Amino acid sequence: MKLRSLQVLCLLNFFIADVRDGLGPFLGIFLVSHHWQANEIGLVMTVGGLAGLLATFPSGMIVDATRYKRLLIITSSVLITFSTLALWYFPTSAVVILSQIITGVAAAIIAPAIAGITLGITGQKGFLDQMGRNEAFNHSGNMAVAVLAALTCWIWGTGSVFLLMTTMAVCTVICTLGINKKEIDHNVARGIEKQDGPVVPVQFFALLKRPELAVTGFTLLLFHLANAAQLPMLSMQVASSTSGSMFTPGTYAALTVAISQAVMIPVALLTARYASQYGYGRLILIALIVLPFRAAIASFGGNEFVLFPVQALDGIAAGILGVAVPGLIASLFNGTGHINAALGLVMLLQGVGASLSPALAGAIVSYTSSWSFAFITLGVIALCALLIWVIFGRLVLKHYFTLPKS
C-alpha cells in the first residue's frame, strides 16, 4: 500500500514545482512590464528571500515535531497562490513586498515537509532513490509549466502564468490529501529509527558545532549567492533590450526554465543511482565545478541564444544538489532526531546566498550598466565555493567523498 502513497508523492512534487517559487523568473518580467527598475526588482526579491530565511530553520524544527506534515504543505500552497494572485490585481510596491514576504515564509516549509514525508514513508534505505524520483518529477513539473507558459505568454501575454500557477496549486492540494497519513512514520521522518529510543530536544547551537554541517552550509551559501541571480538576470537582460528579440520576454523566461529542467530530470535520477558508488562529496564537487563555467558563458552572451548552454549547465548543478544534499544530511544526522532541523539549517544558509544574490546582481547592473561584469562577479564567488569544498570538505567529509554511510 505504501507504493500508492509514493506514487502520489511523485505527483505532488510534479504539481508543487510551479507553486513553491511563486512567479519565480516571471516576477522580474512582470515587474519590468510595470516599469520597475533592475535594482528595485532585486531588492524586492531580496526582501522575500530574507523573510523566508527567518522561517527556514524553525520550519525544519516544526517538521521534526509535528504529525501534520500534509497540512503544512496544503496551507503553504494556498498562501503562496493567493499572495501571488494579488500581484495581478494590485502591482503596487506595498502589495508586491507583502506578497514576496508571504511567499518566502510559506515556501520555507515545503522542502523540509516533503523530505520528512518521504523519509517517514521510505526509511533510510529507500530515501535516496525516492528523493531522486521526487526531484525528477519536480523538474518535470517545472519543465511542463515552462513549456505551457512559453505558449500562453506568446498568445495571451505574461498574465497567463497566474492561471497556470492556480491550476497547479489545486492539483497540489489534491495530491497531498492522497498521501495516506497512516503510512508516515513520524519518528523515522525525524531520524529516529527505533521508537523506544530517547528523543533529544533540538538545540540550535549544538547543530552549529558540527564541522561537516558548517562546511556544507557555507559552501552552499556561496553557491547560491553566485547562482540564484543568473536566471532572472538573463530574463531581465532580454526584457530590457532594445535590439529586437525573436522571443517575447515571457516566452524567453519560460524557455530558460524549460531547458534547465529538462536536464535536471535525468541528472537527478543518475545522482540517486550513483551516489552509493561515487559518494555525495564527489557528486557535489561536480555541481560546484559547473557553476563558474556557467557564469563565464553568460558573461559573453550578446544574444538570447546563450540561454541554451547556460541553462543546460544549471540543470546539471541543480539536478545533483537537489538529491545529494538531502541525502547527505539524512545520512549525517540519522539517529539524532534532528534531520529536518539540520536540513532547515542548511537551507537557511542556502537562502542567505539566494536572497542576497538578486540584490547584488541588480546593484552591479544598475551602477555599472554592465550585465557581463555582474556575471563575472558571480563566477568569482562560485570559484570561492569550489575552493572551500575541495580544501575543507575533504577534511571533514572524507567518507562522503568515497562511499556514503549505509
TrEMBL record:
Source lineage: Bacteria, Pseudomonadati, Pseudomonadota, Gammaproteobacteria, Enterobacterales
Protein's name in the database: MFS transporter
Residue span(s) of domain Major facilitator superfamily (MFS) profile: 205-406
A Pfam family: MFS_1
Keyword ATP-binding: no
Keyword Transmembrane helix: yes
Native source species: Hafnia psychrotolerans
UniProt keyword list: Membrane, Transmembrane, Transmembrane helix
Chain ranges passing through the membrane: 41-59, 71-90, 96-119, 140-157, 163-180, 213-231, 251-271, 283-300, 312-333, 345-367, 373-397
